Amino acid sequence: MTKRALVPVFRGQGQIAYTEHEWPDPGPGQLLIRVRANAICGTDREQFLNGSEVVAGHEAAGEVAAAGQNTSTPVGTRGVIYFKEYCGSCRSCAAGHTSLCSQKRASTGMTTDGGYGPWELIAEQQFFAIPDDVPFDLATMLLDAMGTTGHAWKRALHERQDVRSVYIAGAGPIGLGLLLTGRLILPADIPIYVSDFSEWRRNLVAELGGHPLDAADEESIRAVGAVDLTFDSTGKKVARQLAIDLLGNHGVFMVVGGQEGFSFDDVGVELLPRELSILGSEYFDYNEFAGNLDRLQNNRDAVRKLLTHTYPVEQLDQAFATFLSGESGKVVVTQGGAD
Ligand SMILES: [Zn+2]
Ligand SMILES: [Zn+2]
Predict the structure, then answer these.
(1) What is the pLDDT of residue 272?
(2) How many angstroms is it from 54 CA to the middle of ligand 2?
(3) Please, which residues have CB less than 5 A from ligand 2, an ion?
(4) For helices 149-159 and 289-298, what crossing angle results, to 10°?
(5) What φ, ψ does residue 139 adopt, rounded to 5°?
C-alpha cells in the first residue's frame, strides 16, 4: 500500500517546510526502508541553505518494511543505505568500484527522498544488512564517517606504505572521521595532527587520539615539520596549500569529502623535487562495507566518541543548528523509537 507522510523539505536559507510525500510499494528489485536514523553530512549544508526538491539525508539506517519481486532481503532486516544507486555492470562497477559508477541511476537523499523522512524506496543493491545488535544511530557511522574515510585511507596507504606522520586539515565530520579511522588503522605511536579553527572540535580531536592544532596559528602547523600523508577535508585553498607545503619526500596529498573538487589552479604544486602524489577519494565501494562493519564491531566505544549528538526528527532544526555551530562531531537524527 502506498505510504504517505508529512516530511521535512529544505526550502533554502535554513527553512524547513513540511509537505506530504508518498512512497509506492517497492517494484521489482526494490526495497522500502523504514528509516530509523540518518547522520548529518557536510554536504547536507548545501541542501539546507539552498533548498532541495526531495527529502535530504543520505546517511541512513533502517529496516526493510516491504520487498519487491526478485529480491531476497527479508522484511525486518536491519541495515544501512549506500546512497548511490549503482548499475552493477559498467566498467567501474564490474571492478567493484561502485562509487564511480558511470551509469548511476539515482542518489538517495539527493535525487530521491532520503533519510530525514520516514521511508526510503531504494534498489536492493544499495542495502547492506547489519546484525540486530548494532543500534541504528551507530550504524550510520558505516557511511561517510567510516566508509568514505576508510576508502580514503585505503587509497592513501596503497600509495604510501611507510607512513610515520599524518596531517588532516579540518575537524568537521569528514576530518574527524579520517582521524577516527586512522587511529583504528595506524599504530598508536604514529601522530595524526588535525587542524581546526574551533576549540570545541580541537578538544574532540584530542579525545579521539589526535594532536590538535589551531588552524589560525599557521606557524604552529608548519612547526610539525615534514609529513608523509596529508588530507584536506576543508575544500579551502589556503588549507590545501598548507597541507601540500607540509609534505616531505614521497608525500601524499589526499582530497576527500564534499563536492568542492580540486584544481591545480587552486594551489601551487611542485611535484618533482619531492616526488609528491596527489589523490582524490570519492565515497567508497559497496564491497568495503563488510570490513568496516568488523571495524565498527571491534571498536564500538571509539566510534561512539565521534557520534556526539542525537536528536529525534521532530527536532531536525535543532539538529542542524548544532551541526552548523561547529560544536559537534557527527550529529544523528533518529525516528521510530529507541535503538
Ligand atoms: Zn555524506
Ligand atoms: Zn555502474
Answers:
(1) 86
(2) 23
(3) 86-87, 90, 93, 101, 103
(4) 100
(5) -60, -30
Q: How far is the CA of 41 from the centre of ligand 1 (A)?
A: 4
Find all residues with CB under 8 Å of 134, minimum gap 6, and list them. 78, 293, 296, 297
How far is 173 from 189, CA to CA, in rounded Å? 24
Q: For the domain with range 149-281, which CATH number is right: 1.10.3370.10, 3.40.50.720, 3.40.50.450, 3.40.1390.10?
A: 3.40.50.720
CA 114–ligand 1 middle distance (angstroms): 12
Q: Which residues, 6+ apart, have CB-to-CB distance to 108 below 8 Å?
A: 58, 60, 81, 83, 84, 85, 114, 115, 120, 122, 126
Report how far residue 31's alpha carbon sits from residue 20's, in angstroms, rounded to the nearest whole number: 21
β-strand partners of 108:
112
Reading the block at residue 239, the C-alpha cell is 588549507
Domain 3-145+285-334, second-level architecture: Alpha-Beta Complex (3.90)
Question: Could you read off the pLDDT of 178-225 as tens digits, one per residue?
Answer: 999 999 999 999 999 999 999 999 999 999 999 999 999 999 999 999
Q: Contact, 274 vs 252, CB < 8 A?
A: no
Give residue 144 CA to ligand 1 midpoint distance, Å: 5
Band (pLDDT 50/70/90 cuts) for residue 261 is low
pLDDT grade, residue 17 (50/70/90)?
A: very high
Neighbours of ion ligand 1 (CB under 5 A): 41, 144
